Design the sequence.
């Protein structure tokens, strides 16, 4: 962490990632200030949690390293209005996801160093693992060195300060991080997983099983299996389940995977890499998110939500999760 000792880190945004980065870096003994837009409740929270918290431009002006922890769709406007002109000459700007740089929504001033530290998990996990003395892996990347030539060292120090170096800092590029992250969350982690969960839940309910049983089988138990894959890898997971489950898994995987599935996965990756997905997301944002809001409304009314509330209600320890 030496390259950041005695420097000021401005964490711009105090949401999922920003709060975790700010708390971990401070607990690692580094100087952190927090910035947010005028009237931000998150800035008030940062202030209550003991940070010097201020508006974005005021925080950016103090930065040796400015960490952009704002929503991807909000970054281009915030950058142009409050951040870019306020950053000191030769400062380093750090991103948590490569989206804005990879897809050309932000082009930083030539004197700035440009780096990335992207933890491979949610902000809450970045904080929780750090507090346990552990860390989650992160990708890091250097798009451009600053004049002093310290951008790369600062990125590695930042990854160490948030605890990610305790598990692994893996060098990548902005493009590799942005593209693989978007594809992974769409194809598997958030999109693909929920497509299987929703479709399988609906099928079981239609076939006459109770929504709670369908929920437990198709959604609740995902965690148990995911924990095994996480800790032991796919083969280790298979060793921990019954032969019946393992045999059935091979039957199902072979039945589900065909040329149609491969073509659909390829299409997702093509749209990520061509920038078509990024353009679609930003166009929807600029129009007030009509597509996004319609999907959110339709999803929140899905029958799986009622079953989920009932099942989670049985477990008091999940109520505040
Ligand atoms: N979610 C995750 O755990 C996760 C995981 C890996 C990478 N990332 C990346 O981390 C970055 C931040 O994502 P996040 O999920 O942490 O963001 P977030 O929680 O949605 O929001 C972060 C902050 O931005 C502020 N904000 C919201 N809209 C704004 C606007 N229009 N202008 C200025 N400030 C605004 C919010 O405060 P106020 O609303 O109070 O102003 C909040 O402090 C993104 O690049 C994302 O891709 C996130």
Sequence:
């Amino acid at each position: 962490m030496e390259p950041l000792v005695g420097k000021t880190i401005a964490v711009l945004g105090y949401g999922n990632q920003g709060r975790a980065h700010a708390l971990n870096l401070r607990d690692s003994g580094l100087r952190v200030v927090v910035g947010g837009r005028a009237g931000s409740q998150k800035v008030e929270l940062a202030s209550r949690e003991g940070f010097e918290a201020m508006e974005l431009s005021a925080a950016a002006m103090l930065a040796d390293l400015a960490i952009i922890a704002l929503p991807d769709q909000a970054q281009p406007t915030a950058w142009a209005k409050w951040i870019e002109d306020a950053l000191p000459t030769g400062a380093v700007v750090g991103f948590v996801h490569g989206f804005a740089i990879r897809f050309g929504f932000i082009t930083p001033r030539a004197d700035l160093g440009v780096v990335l530290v992207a933890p491979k998990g949610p902000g809450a996990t970045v904080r929780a693992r750090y507090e346990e003395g552990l860390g989650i892996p992160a990708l890091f990347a250097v798009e451009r060195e600053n004049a002093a030539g310290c951008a790369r060292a600062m990125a590695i120090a930042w990854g160490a300060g948030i605890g990610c170096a305790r598990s692994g800092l893996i060098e990548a590029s902005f493009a590799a991080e942005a593209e693989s992250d978007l594809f992974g969350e769409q194809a598997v982690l958030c999109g693909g997983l929920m497509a299987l969960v929703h479709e399988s839940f609906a099928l079981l309910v239609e076939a006459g099983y109770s929504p709670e049983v369908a929920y437990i089988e198709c959604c609740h138990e995902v965690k148990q299996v995911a924990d095994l894959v996480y800790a032991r890898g796919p083969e280790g997971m298979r060793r921990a389940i019954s032969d019946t489950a393992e045999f059935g898994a091979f039957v199902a995987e072979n039945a589900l995977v065909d040329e149609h599935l491969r073509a659909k996965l390829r299409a997702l990756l093509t749209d990520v890499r061509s920038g078509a997905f990024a353009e679609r997301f930003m166009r929807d944002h600029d129009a007030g998110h009509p597509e996004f809001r319609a999907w959110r409304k339709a999803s929140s009314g899905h029958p799986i939500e009622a079953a989920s509330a009932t099942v989670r209600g049985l477990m008091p320890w999940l109520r505040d999760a």
In short: The chain has 16 helices and eight strands. The beta strands are 8-12, 31-36, 52-55, 65-68, 92-95, 113-119, 138-144, 169-171. The pocket of NAP is lined by residues 13-18, 36-37, 40-42, 69-72, 74, 78, 96-97, 118, 122-123 (CB under 6 Å).
